[in-house]
Amino acid sequence: MKRHIFATAAILLASFATARAETVLNIGMAAADIGQIDPHRATTTQDKPVVSWIFNGLVRFKPGSASLETLEPDLATSWDKSADGKTWIFHLRSGVKFHGDWGEMTAEDVVYSLKRAADGKTSAFAPDYAVVESIEAVDPVTVKIVLKKPIPALLGLVANYHGGNIVSKKAAEALGADFRTKPVGTGPFQIVEYKSNESLTLISNPNYFRGKPKIDKIVYRFIPADASRDLAFSSGELDIVYGRQDQRWVERFSKEPGTVVEVVKPSELATLYLNEGMKPLDDKRVRQAIAYAIDRPQIAGFKGAATAVPAVSVVPTGYLGTDEKAKLFPNDIAKAKALLTEAGYPNGVAIKVIQTSLPTMLNSMQIVQSQLKKAGIDLQFEVVDHQSFHSQIRKDLSGAVYYSAARFPVADVYLRQFFHSDSIVGKPTAVTNFSHCAVADAEIDAAAIEGDAAKQKELWKTAQAKIIEDVCAVPLFEQLQVWARKTTVDYGYTFEGAIHLGPVITEATTKK
Amino acid sequence: MTAAAPPAPQPRRRLSVLGKALRNVGLVLGAVIVVAMIAAALGAPWIAPYDPDAQDVLLVLGTPDSVHWFGTDAFGRDVLSRVLWGARVSLYVGFVATAAGVVIGTVIGVISGYYGGIVDRLVVAATDVLLSFPQLIMGLLLVAVLGASLTNLIIAIAVTAVPAFIRMARGSTLAMRERDFVDACRSLGFSDFRIMFVHVLPNILDELVVMASLWLASAIRTESTLAFIGLSVPPPTATWGGIVREGFDNLLDGPWLALFPSLAILAVMIGLNMIGDGLRDASDPRAPQ
User: What pLDDT is attached to residue B20?
Assistant: First the structure.
C-alpha cells in the first residue's frame, strides 16, 4: 500500500514537472479489442473511427456528415472528368507529409493505395474497384483514373472511406503484416501505442496539412462491458463514449449534467441472413416461415424510437437506389406455421446460429429468437466472442447470421457485398454474402454499368424485390449511431452524421 | 477382536452422528434453506408465474411490483420466473457435477490408497498437478476449450472436483488400510473389491459427505461465475449467473435485475455451508457432545 502511494506521488510530481498538461481526449469504445486498422481491411465498428483520424482520401466526407453530397477536396485540390465519364484526373495537394519519417505524399502513393485497395489479397473492398481499368501517376501531383464504364459515384471510391484511404507506399511495403496495427497515413493523428485488449494511443501529427491539431493525444479505450463504460464516462474518466443504441440510455445520459448525447446517421441496417446452403434453410418455405414470424415494429419498439426504426428493404434507407417501399413479408405466425408444415416440419425446426457475445447484438438476436419461437422455429445459439463470431460466420458455419451494417450510400455496394454470388462466404472473392444468395446477380451487374439513372434505379429495385421474395435475408430494423461527449469537448463541427460510425477528431477539435 | 464380525462398530456410530446432526441448529436451518431452494427449482414449471422466456416490449425494465415481484428485465421477461427456472440449471449443474466428481474421485482415491505402489504415486502426482490450478481457472479453461453447453459445463466443474476427492478418499483409505477390521476381512478371504467398497468406503463416508456439501456450494458458485462471464448455457435459458450478468448490463436502469439472482446464490451458499459445518461438527468425535 505504502509503495503504491509513493508511486502515485511520483507520477503526480512527474506530471507537474512536465509543465503544460497535454490535452488528452479519452474515448471509450464498446469492443474488447481493435480488429484491423489497416484502412483497406477495417470493417468493424470499432476500427472505422480510428481510420478516419489517421487517413485522408483524395476527397473527404465533410466532418460530421454521412452524405455523398458533402464530399469536399481532401488530398486532391480539384479534379476533372472526361465527357464520357470514364477518365478522371485528380490534382493533388503538394507538400503533404506522411506520419513519422515516411516522407512526402505523392501521386505514387495514391496509385499504390488505390491498387492496394483493388487487390483482394490486401483489401476487403476489392470488388468495389473492379470497374477501374487503370490508375496511373501522370506526374508527382496528378493522378489519372480510367474506368471500364462510368459508375454512379466514382468520388466515393477515392473518398476517405474504406479503400479510398491513402496509405504510405514505403511504410506499407516495409511494415508488411505489422501495418495492421501500425498504419501510416497523412491524417491529423498517428498511432504511437497499441495495447491488446486495452487501448490504442494516438498523438497529434504536427505536420498535418490543415494545421497542428489542438488535441495532443487520443486514448481510445476498449471497454466491452456496457455498465463499466457508462460508469467510466459518468465519472469523467472518458470524454467521449460510444453510446448504447437504446432509448433508455439516450434518455438517461441526455439528463446528465455536462453531457451531450448525439444520435447520428448513417443508420446500420440489422438483417438476419439465412444460409441457403444449410438444411433446413435450403427450403424456401422454411425461409418464408421465418420472414412471416418476424415482427419488425416490435423489434424497433424494444430498441426505442429515439434510435431505431423498422427496416424498409434489404438495403438501408436513404441510399442511392434503395426501394423505400419494398414489399416485405408481414408478421403472420399462422402463415409461418402453415409453411413449416407444408415443408415437412409440423413440429418446427431447429437452426444453429453462431452468435456474438457483444451485448447489443446478442440482445437484438434474443428478441428475434423469441419471435421465431412462437412459430416453432428454434434458434440455437452458440455464443462466442465478437472476433470469433466474425471469423466463424465467414467460414460458412452459421445457419443464420445476424449482421448489422452501413456501407457506402449507394445501393450497388450493399447489394454486391451481401447478395451477389461473387461475395458468397467461402469463395475466394467472398465478402459478406452469408446467405449464398444468387437470385439478383444479373440486375446488380446491369445496374452497376447502367448510364441512365432512372433505368439504374429500376434495376436496383428489381434486385431488391427478388432478394426479398427469395428470402435470402430478412431485414429487421435500422439503428442510428449514438455517441455522447462531455460539454468540454467541441468537435469543431456539427455532429449529424458519421460515415465512419464515430466522431471524426480533426485539427479543430478542442477540449477545455 | 475376533474375526467374526468386523464391520460391527459402524451402525452405532452413524446413528449417533445423525442424532448429533439433528441437534445442530445451523445444520437444520441450512438444510431448510437448501431443501426450499431445491423444491423451488423442481416446482418452477408450476410455481413460476410466467413463462421465463416470454418477452414483452411494453414491460421493459419494469420495477418490482405486485404483478412482477422481482420486476422485469431488458426484454420485459419476469425476473422471478427466470430466477426460479435459473435455479434448475444452476442447482442441476452443481449437483450433477459434484456427484460425478465425488464418485469418480472417491473410486480412484480408494483404489489408489488401498493398493499403494506405483499406481498410487502416479495418481498422487497427477492430483497435485490438477490441484495446483485454481478451480475457476480450470473450469474456465475447460469450458473455453470444450465450448459452452450444459454437458461441457458439468464436465468442466466435475473435473475440478475430482482431484480434491481423490486426495481425500486416498488419505482416509490409507489410514483405514492399517486397521484391524481390514486385516480381518483379508483373513476371511474377502475380495479386494469387497473390502474397498463394502468395508472401507462406509467408514470414510462421513468425511466425504461433509466435503461434498462444501464442494456443492463451490460448484454452484463456479457455474454462476462462468455464466457471469458468458461461458454457460446459451440464451435464452436462464441461469443465476446469466441473469446477474444481464442485470449488470442494466445496473443503473434496473438494479433489481442483478440483486435477486445474487440473493438466491447467496442463500444457497449460506445454506450449503451451514450444512457442511454442521455435518463436520456432528461427525467429529472430538467435538463436545
Answer: 67
Distance CA A166, CA A185 (A): 7
Provide ipTM, 2 decimals: 0.70
Partner-chain residue, chosen from B55, B60, B248, that has the shortest CB–CB distance to A370: B55
Is residue A230 within 8 angstroms of chain B, CB to CB? yes
Contact check, Cβ <8 Å, B57/A230: no
- Average pLDDT on A399-411 reads 89
Domain that holds residue B252: 21-43+69-283
Q: C-alpha angle with apex B142: B260 to B128, nearest 5 degrees?
A: 105
Give the tens place of pLDDT for each residue, B130-162: 888 887 888 888 888 887 788 888 998 898 889
Q: What is the CATH number of domain A267-480?
A: 3.10.105.10
Chain A environment of B60 (Cβ under 8 Å): 248, 302
Q: Is the pLDDT of residue A340 over 60?
A: yes
Q: According to CATH, where is 3.10.105.10 located in chain A?
A: 267-480
CA-to-CA dists, residue A442 to A282, A416, A422, A434, angstroms:
21, 11, 12, 19
| For A227, nearest residue in chain B (alpha carbons) | B249
Judge whether B273 lies within some domain: yes
A227:B252 CB<8 A: yes
What does the alpha-carbon distance between residue A191 and residue A213 come to, in Å, rounded to a whole number? 14
Q: Report how far residue A264's alpha carbon sits from residue A498's, in angstroms, rounded to the nearest whole number.
A: 7
Stretch 340-359 of chain A: residues touching chain B, C-beta under 8 Å? 355, 357, 359
Greatest mean pLDDT among A224-228, A266-270, A459-463 lies in A459-463
SS3 for A62-74, per residue?
CCCCCCHHHCEEC
Q: Positive or negative CA dihedral for A71, A76, A80, A84?
A: negative
What's the topology of domain A24-210+488-511?
D-Maltodextrin-Binding Protein; domain 2 (3.40.190)
The nearest CA of chain B is from the CA of A49 a distance in Å of 24
Task: List, edge to edge, every strand of the sheet that includes A87-92.
Answer: A76-81, A87-92, A142-147, A132-139
What's the structural domain count of chain B? 1
* Residue A471 pLDDT: 96
Q: Is the pTM of the predicted complex or chain greater than 0.90? A: no
Give the span between the Cα atoms of A94 and B213, in whole angstroms: 77
Reply yes or no on whether the pLDDT at A58 is more than 60.
yes
Query: Is residue B3 one of the residues assigned to a domain?
Result: no
pLDDT at A187: 95
Determine the residue among B249, B251, B257 to mutate to test chain A binding: the one whose Cβ has the most chain A Cβ atoms within 10 Å. Answer: B249
* Yes or no, beta carbons of A382 and B147 under 8 Å apart: yes
A429-455 residue pLDDT tens? 888 999 999 999 999 999 887 777 789
CA distance A511 to A488: 5
For A82-86, A288-292, A349-353, which range has the lowest pLDDT when averaged over its residues?
A82-86
Of B147, B235, B250, the CB nearest to A366: B235
A301 touching B, CB under 8 A? yes
Cα atoms in the Cβ-side hemisphere of radius 13 Å centred on A394: 14
With CB atoms and an 8 Å threshold, state whether A248 touches B235: no
- In terms of Cβ atoms closer than 10 Å to its own Cβ (0-12, 13-18, 19+), residue A284 is middle
